[in-house]
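pasting input
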Amino acid sequence: MTQVAVLKGGRSLERQVSLKSGARVQDALERLGHEVVAIDVGADLVGRLEEKRPELAFVALHGRDGEDGTVQELLDAMGIRYTGSGVSACIRAADKVLAKHAMRDAGIPTPDFFAFNETAFRELGAAQALPAIEEQLSFPIVVKPAGQGSALGIKFARTTADVPAALVAAFSYDRKVLLERHIPGRDLAVSLIERDGVPTALPVVEAVPKQEPFYDFEARYEIGRTTFVCPAALDPSVSERASSLALEVFELLGCAGFARVDLMLSEDGGLHVLEANSIPGMTETSLLPQAADAAGISFDELVQLILDAALARVS
Amino acid sequence: MTVRSRTTAHDIERYAGLFAARTRGMKSSAMRDLMALTEQPDVISLAGGWPDTSTFPPDSYASVMGAVAAESCARALQYGPTEGLTLVKRCIVEVMREEGMSVDADELLVTTGGQQVIDLVCKTLVDPGDVVVAEAPTYPGAVPTFSAYEADVVQVPIDEEGMIVDVLVTTLNRLESEGKRPKFIYTVPNFHNPGGVTLSMERRHELVRIASEREILVLEDNPYGLLRYEGTPLPPLRSLDDEFVIYAGTFSKILSPGVRLGWAAAPGPVLEKMNVGKQGADLCSSSVCQYFVSAYFESGPWLKYVRSLIEIYRRRRDVMLDALAEFLPREAHWTHPEGGLFIWATLPDYIDTTDLLARALDEHVAFVPGRAAYVDGRGGSSMRLNFSGVDEAQIHEGIRRIGEIVHEQVALYGTLTGAAPAARTPESPAALEPVREPGAALAKVLRLPAQRKRAG
């Protein structure tokens, strides 16, 4: 039995999703016989952790603060062990621009992109570079904030005229945004968990949106709006490539415990890594639990594996 | 040893397989997740539709509840008739008289809030695919109700005089040519939610005439009619025609939304079906609350409290209007409501107010993105601002923060498009002055392409 504090909620835009993830994790931990305290992360976080002094924190937070290394830094400072990736991996995964640069440098395929801070437009005349960028990326261009975990703020610019408004929208979420080449194709996700210290890829999930033109924030978390196929109906060689790419990304970013890597399978059979999530969702419609289920790992077993990985890592 | 979790991914599909077809239209959304953040205690929320219940004297509450306990304890704790208690119907008759209507108690159905009237009307009238005509924008809270009954919502634009009746006529003609007969027209004629505008006298007459001629019901939703801060009250639609108008009233805005009491006044056969529908929904509305309302009306002049609310809300509205003029860029427009709780502001079309809300939440201020008031994804650059729920200082500060962000985005857009910051080079003379009064410019703000809109 371990004393576990489940950290959930917080102030990020993904608060509601985190509350759902956290509640499910909490239930599972209780069923597994652990002593659980749930903390809705707020201004009293440090005080409550001081008071409870849990053996381990299960970080079920998504988005800002929880997934970008902030809470992990606090936990490190307080000497409290926690699930999932450490500070540096969280920082690298949460910032899509950092992650994509790392991938590109390492030769891992990721869609072409250009990323800018707001100051580049305000002070350096970056707007004048837009035509060249548009020409290189070709329309439609995906415009997204660097640090938003879900699909909030992601816009498709279909023509030159769409780009400024898409940038304004993306800058609503972050001071840094990227313009990325759109890869039409199939939306795949590879979830990874560490078992006995070895990261392992779970069966590939394909997300097929039922209505939306692309897999958006709403479809991602809602029952009935997305069909999930797991294991995805793929040629075994494609599944293997996707899994091995995901494992490469996991190692490259220095992830630990568990993670999810999102990829696109383009029409010509190419695989392109979009991003890595250091704390993937644990809701009923989330992809990691589905992938685990397909591998014969129940939700409770999954939670225990994540817990074990965290305990093993430190000891 | 591990126990299999109670819900797995496979279970999701199994549950989903059991869902009724109508749940397809019952969507949660990113916006709803965002709206949940607006309820954080340190957020200045201009997003709610909340009256300020802190204005209600705790002493009055105590004495009214005390009277209920002393005089009607057992009855207040008991079930009541589905149509509502006679003693609360007497209060409703009084309120409706104040609104300019004469109604008999047997024409009334007491409901659990005004919201239940919308639900019961849909339950009574709407089969899947039936057309419901609503304003564009419409009350965001009505949209999930229409969706739950699988209504085909067709929205008719509003301008400074409320629903544009000419467009309504062409819409009805087109629907007729398609073999579709709308079941009812949903309208908020006074101090529209979210538009803030009021249906003009002429259009009131036209609307009831059209409804009567074509035998289409009108659902007149009038939660704020008594909260008028300027101008002359206009007669309710039901006072002009009681054959084809269903009237929805509520105690929420003149007393308390916490009592969850509203009512419907409707033609007999419609009321009867709504009554049966209500039996299935909740048997009866809370007896405790009905006794409370009745005792409150008996205790003294309820209108005095309404007048005190009018004073408070008028000042808050004025503070918001002044703040909008001070802090929003000149490309923005907004309505000037003569009453009610809301101002509808429209920003340049390159600003998406859903994204803007995410940014605003960083600054601890919130509003309702305009898209919530449309069934087809339009309204993206508008927002609903509530001025009743927070005090004057907070309204001023909230608008200041929103204004700052909007200015940032306007400047950024100007930089991105290579134009000089738009605030210094307005594109047209009409944009020079913010809209402070109903007028021609307002039509520009609110008039929308009369294109077809569909549910879900």
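fyi The two ends of chain B are 46 Å apart (CA to CA).
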